[in-house]
Amino acid sequence: MVLSGKLSTEVGIKTPADKFYNLFITELHEVQNLCERVHHTKLHEGEDWHHTDSVKHWTYVIDGKVHTCHESLEEVDEQNKKIIFKLFGGDIDEHYKVFKLILEVIDKGDGTAASKWTVEYEKINEDIDPPNGYMEYFGKCARDIDNHLAKAKIAI
């Protein structure tokens, strides 16, 4: 059985690509206020939420269960609106040796955009299931964030 893999999902968004991407680059701490499945976030190490040396602590719900992990920025590609997050600690380490979340915000060029969420993982053993629940979680969070940003645009 294969221990490593990759899962992806693409969620269409109403928000312009730049605005959606900017939230993750400059206001990541706001995600807990926008996504019902994110219960709490806090800066664990470092002075800035958006620096590669910083570590954040997340508490969230997947499949009805509360989970925790730490997260750090591994790479930011502003030109391609791509961010790679490394997730570790807490519940992640119980199941995975490697767990990376890649967010790409795609401007479709026709007035529409999409957020593409990819998880690259390596399981600790073959008895562990792929992280399918995480894909549903990221898709739901993308829709929650998009709905909030779309409403904010209307209110202005």
From TrEMBL:
Coiled coil: none annotated. Residues 2-152 form the Bet v I/Major latex protein domain. Gene3D superfamilies: 3.30.530.20. InterPro entries: Bet_v_I/MLP, MLP-like, START-like_dom_sf. GO terms for biological process: defense response. PANTHER family: POLYKETIDE CYCLASE/DEHYDRASE AND LIPID TRANSPORT SUPERFAMILY PROTEIN, POLYKETIDE CYCLASE_DEHYDRASE AND LIPID TRANSPORT SUPERFAMILY PROTEIN. Belongs to the MLP family. This is Pathogenesis-related protein bet V I family protein. It comes from Medicago truncatula. The gene is 11416433.
